[in-house]
Amino acid sequence: MTSPDTVKLADLCDLVAVQVDPVEHAGSLYVGLEHVASGQFVRIGGGAGADVQSSKFAFEKGDILYGKLRPYLDKAVLADTGGICTTELLVLRAKAGVDPRFLIGVVHAPRFIEQAVAGTTGVQHPRASWAHISEFELPKFDTHEQKQIAELLWMVHDAITACDATIRSGAALKRTSMRELFTRGLKGEPQKETEIGQVPDGWTFERLGDVAEIEYGAQAAVANAIDPTIGTLILTNVNLDLDGHINLEKRRYYKVPEAHKERLSLRKGDVLFNWRSGSADHVGKTVYFDLDGEYTYSSFILRFRPHRCVANKYLFRWLTYLRINGFFVSQRNVSSINSVYNASLSSTIPIWFPPEDEQNDIIAILDAIDLKIDLHRRKRAVLDELFKTLLHKLMTGEIRISDLDLSVLDLETKAEAAE
Predict the structure, then answer these.
(1) What percent of the chain has pLDDT over 70?
(2) Closest of 314, 315, 304, 301 to residue 347, by C-alpha
(3) Is the pLDDT confidence value at 221 over 70?
(4) Are 97 and 70 in contact (CB under 8 A)?
(5) Cα–Cα distance between 83 and 22 in angstroms, integer?
(6) Rounded CA separation 394/376 (Å)
(7) What is the model's pLDDT at position 343?
(8) ∠ CA(257), CA(313), CA(181), 5° rounding?
(9) pLDDT in tens, 85-107
(10) What are the sequence ranges of the domains in the chain?
(11) What superfamily does domain 6-140 belong to in CATH?
């Protein structure tokens, strides 16, 4: 039973389950689970009613489309127009006096997700039910405070969306720049056709094995994972991101045998190459190692260390360019389980490179683009943490909107708009 200071989700919205035949709504927007991203307030795409079959739910602009399948995925969006949706989305309609922009915040709140998950049924395909989530309790907010909370949450949400757009455009710029830099160079030279496509006519050709030392990582690294107090942090495939970053969210430790310490110890400037993976597009993931401290690397990673002609970071950029353009996928050996690009095959990778000064200029251009992308990645991480904190503390009443000084956020929003 709710107290005078709390309400249930059922007090804020109704479940609307109007089933329709998509044949009769061929021209309508269709929203499936694939069009709803985790943690986002708005859909990321949509289909057409003409492209789907079986009964669907009808929804209106302003309805909340809540993903009941695997509620821990945190999928729910505010409908920006009417349409039809999969029956895996519950259609929730705000009651009179309830701001739908506030309601979407409620169903994304961490405590709500916890309750939804706790009440799921089904093992392989756990689903939340309206009967369970409708009992979710939260503090009672008047219409004015609902609006204020909604405005704050949407301000941060929109800032995150803007960061994502900048990151995507930066990544697209980097891909375009790499293609231009590695096919045309910086000196306006004529081009020539090679096994990897066009390159500037004056560039030098070598095979990777002729310009760099190639080493395998530690065998059975995961099986030998041990306590960090007596081991070295080991980089495995999961630590190498497709965007060229080293991701340390998952950490494992390995006691490096004394006899192999020199071979297995990483130093700044090493280039790490994912040579074996169950996913073909992950073969050839390459990162530039520039971390402080002691690190080693696992057996599915090759360590390249240039010893002449080619700058370390240029090699990193070149190998990334080859992967993005599908070179490793087209050349790899394939077994029934893994895509393989081992040390022997890696030694034959073609390396085209300009003189040292042009290598450095290419590195500088791509570093500058990465710097901007990384800046927005860090900003997004801060905003994401702020967003989660606000969702939790506002929806539990731990803090009230009147307690917050929003002038700083207002100034930042104006600065973003000006930029």
Answers:
(1) 91
(2) 304
(3) no
(4) no
(5) 10
(6) 26
(7) 79
(8) 150
(9) 999 999 999 999 999 999 999 99
(10) 6-140, 204-353
(11) DNA methylase specificity domains (3.90.220.20)
Helix H or strand E segment including 380:
helix 356-396
* DSSP secondary structure letters along 51-89: G--S-EEEE-TT-EEEE-BSGGG--EEE-SS-EEE-TTE
Whether 376 and 382 have beta carbons less than 8 Å apart is answered as: no
And the tokens for 350?
A: 């073609």
pLDDT at 316 > cutoff 80: yes
pLDDT at 334: 46
pLDDT tens digit string along 54-81? 999 999 999 999 999 999 999 999 999 9
Tokens of residue 284, six digits: 């050839």
The CATH number corresponding to 204-353 among 2.30.36.70, 3.20.20.60, 3.30.450.30, 3.90.220.20 equals 3.90.220.20
Q: Three-state DSSP class for 323?
A: helix
- The residue among 197, 195, 169, 172 whose CA lies nearest residue 182 is 197
Which of these, 228, 301, 294, lies nearest to 267 by C-alpha position? 294
| Structure-token pair, residue 107 | 């169903």
What is the tens place of the pLDDT at every residue in 105-150? 999 999 999 999 999 999 889 999 999 999 999 999 999 999 999 9
Specify the pLDDT at position 3: 60
Edge-first strand order for the sheet with 232-235 is 252-254, 232-235, 295-297
Structure token digits, residue 400 = 């009230």
Same fold, 6-140 and 204-353: yes
Model-level pTM? 0.80
Tell me what the pLDDT averaged over the chain comes to: 90
Q: Which amino acid is at 193?
A: E
* Polymer length in residues for the chain: 419
Residues near 223 by Cβ (< 8 Å), separated by ≥ 6?
Answer: none
pLDDT of residue 116: 96
Segments in 96-142 forming alpha helices (H) = 100-108, 110-118, 130-133
Which pLDDT band, with edges at 50, 70 and 90, does 230 fall under?
confident
CB 139 within 8 A of CB 102: no
Average pLDDT of the segment spanning 256-272: 92
Distance CA 53, CA 62 (A): 25
Each residue's pLDDT tens digit, 19-40: 999 999 999 999 999 999 999 9
Q: How far apart are CA 198 and CA 183, in angstroms?
A: 5
